[in-house]
Amino acid sequence: MTHFRHKALAALLAALLGAVGINRAYLGQPFWWLPLAVTLIALPLIIGVSNWYQTPSFFVAMVPVIAGFIQALVIALMPDQQFDARFNAGRSQRNSSGWDAVLIAIASLLIGAALLMTTIALATQTYFEYALKVSS
Question: What is the pLDDT along the chain (136 residues), one digit of tens a residue?
Fold first, then answer.
Protein backbone atom coordinates (compact mmCIF):
# COMPACT_ATOMS: atom_id res chain seq x y z
CA MET A 1 0.00 0.00 0.00
CA THR A 2 1.19 3.52 -0.72
CA HIS A 3 2.10 6.06 1.91
CA PHE A 4 -0.21 8.87 3.02
CA ARG A 5 0.28 12.00 0.96
CA HIS A 6 0.03 15.37 2.71
CA LYS A 7 -1.52 18.14 0.63
CA ALA A 8 0.60 20.98 2.05
CA LEU A 9 3.81 18.99 1.57
CA ALA A 10 2.86 18.17 -2.02
CA ALA A 11 2.21 21.87 -2.71
CA LEU A 12 5.49 22.88 -1.06
CA LEU A 13 7.43 20.31 -3.07
CA ALA A 14 5.78 21.60 -6.25
CA ALA A 15 6.81 25.17 -5.47
CA LEU A 16 10.37 24.38 -4.42
CA LEU A 17 11.26 21.39 -6.61
CA GLY A 18 8.64 21.41 -9.36
CA ALA A 19 11.31 22.00 -11.99
CA VAL A 20 12.72 18.53 -11.32
CA GLY A 21 9.41 16.73 -10.77
CA ILE A 22 9.89 15.74 -7.12
CA ASN A 23 6.30 16.71 -6.33
CA ARG A 24 5.01 14.48 -9.12
CA ALA A 25 7.05 11.53 -7.80
CA TYR A 26 5.71 12.17 -4.29
CA LEU A 27 2.14 12.09 -5.61
CA GLY A 28 2.81 8.94 -7.65
CA GLN A 29 1.96 10.61 -10.96
CA PRO A 30 3.06 9.01 -14.22
CA PHE A 31 5.81 10.72 -16.21
CA TRP A 32 7.12 12.39 -13.05
CA TRP A 33 10.54 12.50 -14.70
CA LEU A 34 9.43 14.73 -17.62
CA PRO A 35 10.16 18.11 -15.89
CA LEU A 36 13.51 16.69 -14.77
CA ALA A 37 14.37 15.70 -18.34
CA VAL A 38 13.54 19.17 -19.69
CA THR A 39 15.58 20.82 -16.95
CA LEU A 40 18.56 18.49 -17.42
CA ILE A 41 18.58 19.10 -21.17
CA ALA A 42 18.25 22.90 -20.93
CA LEU A 43 20.57 23.73 -18.03
CA PRO A 44 23.89 22.56 -19.54
CA LEU A 45 23.16 24.72 -22.58
CA ILE A 46 22.89 27.82 -20.36
CA ILE A 47 26.02 27.37 -18.24
CA GLY A 48 28.94 29.54 -19.33
CA VAL A 49 26.98 31.53 -21.91
CA SER A 50 27.08 35.31 -21.78
CA ASN A 51 23.58 36.78 -21.59
CA TRP A 52 22.29 33.34 -20.54
CA TYR A 53 18.93 34.89 -19.69
CA GLN A 54 18.37 35.60 -23.39
CA THR A 55 19.06 32.12 -24.73
CA PRO A 56 16.33 29.78 -25.95
CA SER A 57 17.55 27.20 -23.42
CA PHE A 58 16.74 29.59 -20.57
CA PHE A 59 13.16 29.98 -21.77
CA VAL A 60 12.80 26.21 -22.15
CA ALA A 61 14.17 25.72 -18.62
CA MET A 62 11.65 28.21 -17.25
CA VAL A 63 8.68 26.13 -18.46
CA PRO A 64 8.96 23.42 -15.76
CA VAL A 65 9.86 26.04 -13.13
CA ILE A 66 6.70 28.06 -13.80
CA ALA A 67 4.65 24.88 -14.19
CA GLY A 68 5.80 23.82 -10.71
CA PHE A 69 4.46 27.04 -9.21
CA ILE A 70 1.17 26.62 -11.07
CA GLN A 71 0.86 23.05 -9.84
CA ALA A 72 1.67 24.19 -6.29
CA LEU A 73 -1.16 26.70 -6.50
CA VAL A 74 -3.58 24.11 -7.88
CA ILE A 75 -2.69 21.57 -5.18
CA ALA A 76 -2.83 24.09 -2.33
CA LEU A 77 -6.23 25.40 -3.40
CA MET A 78 -7.73 21.95 -4.09
CA PRO A 79 -10.35 20.97 -1.50
CA ASP A 80 -9.05 18.40 0.99
CA GLN A 81 -11.73 15.87 0.04
CA GLN A 82 -10.85 16.10 -3.64
CA PHE A 83 -7.12 15.76 -2.90
CA ASP A 84 -7.72 12.71 -0.71
CA ALA A 85 -10.02 11.09 -3.29
CA ARG A 86 -7.36 11.53 -5.97
CA PHE A 87 -4.11 10.87 -4.12
CA ASN A 88 -5.11 9.00 -0.93
CA ALA A 89 -7.83 6.72 -2.25
CA GLY A 90 -8.53 3.75 0.01
CA ARG A 91 -6.84 5.25 3.07
CA SER A 92 -8.69 6.07 6.27
CA GLN A 93 -6.38 8.99 7.14
CA ARG A 94 -7.53 12.33 5.70
CA ASN A 95 -5.96 15.74 5.12
CA SER A 96 -7.20 18.69 7.10
CA SER A 97 -5.09 21.49 5.77
CA GLY A 98 -5.32 24.94 7.23
CA TRP A 99 -3.03 27.90 7.12
CA ASP A 100 -0.11 25.86 5.84
CA ALA A 101 -1.80 25.32 2.46
CA VAL A 102 -3.00 28.93 2.35
CA LEU A 103 0.49 30.33 3.01
CA ILE A 104 2.01 28.02 0.41
CA ALA A 105 -0.63 29.16 -2.09
CA ILE A 106 0.12 32.83 -1.39
CA ALA A 107 3.88 32.34 -1.69
CA SER A 108 3.47 30.27 -4.88
CA LEU A 109 1.28 32.92 -6.42
CA LEU A 110 3.67 35.76 -5.56
CA ILE A 111 6.89 34.03 -6.61
CA GLY A 112 5.37 32.24 -9.61
CA ALA A 113 3.75 35.42 -10.95
CA ALA A 114 7.00 37.36 -10.55
CA LEU A 115 8.95 34.65 -12.40
CA LEU A 116 6.35 34.47 -15.16
CA MET A 117 6.32 38.25 -15.66
CA THR A 118 10.12 38.36 -15.66
CA THR A 119 10.30 35.56 -18.21
CA ILE A 120 7.74 37.28 -20.46
CA ALA A 121 9.63 40.59 -20.18
CA LEU A 122 12.95 38.92 -21.02
CA ALA A 123 11.40 37.05 -23.95
CA THR A 124 9.90 40.26 -25.31
CA GLN A 125 13.18 42.13 -24.88
CA THR A 126 15.11 39.33 -26.57
CA TYR A 127 12.65 39.22 -29.49
CA PHE A 128 12.81 42.97 -30.14
CA GLU A 129 16.61 43.12 -29.77
CA TYR A 130 16.89 40.30 -32.31
CA ALA A 131 14.40 42.02 -34.63
CA LEU A 132 16.39 45.27 -34.47
CA LYS A 133 19.64 43.41 -35.12
CA VAL A 134 18.18 41.63 -38.16
CA SER A 135 16.59 44.77 -39.64
CA SER A 136 19.75 46.88 -39.41
Answer: 578 999 999 999 999 999 999 999 999 999 999 999 999 999 999 999 999 999 999 999 999 999 999 999 999 999 999 999 999 998 889 999 899 999 999 999 999 999 999 999 999 999 999 999 898 7
Residue type, 8: A
CA dist 108 and 76 (Å) reads 9
Q: Which residues make Cβ contacts (< 8 Å) with residue 35, sequence separation at least 6? A: 18, 19, 20, 21, 24, 64, 67, 68
Q: In Å, what is the CA distance from 81 to each residue of 63, 85, 87, 89?
A: 29, 6, 10, 10
Q: Which helix (H) or strand (E) holds 8?
A: helix 7-17
Contacts of 82 (CB under 8 A, 6+ apart): none
In angstroms, the CA 55 to CA 32 distance is 26
What's the Rg (C-alpha) of the chain?
A: 18
Helices (H), 21-136: 22-26, 34-46, 56-77, 80-87, 99-135
> pTM of the predicted model, to two decimals?
0.90
The residue ranges of every structural domain in the chain are: 7-135
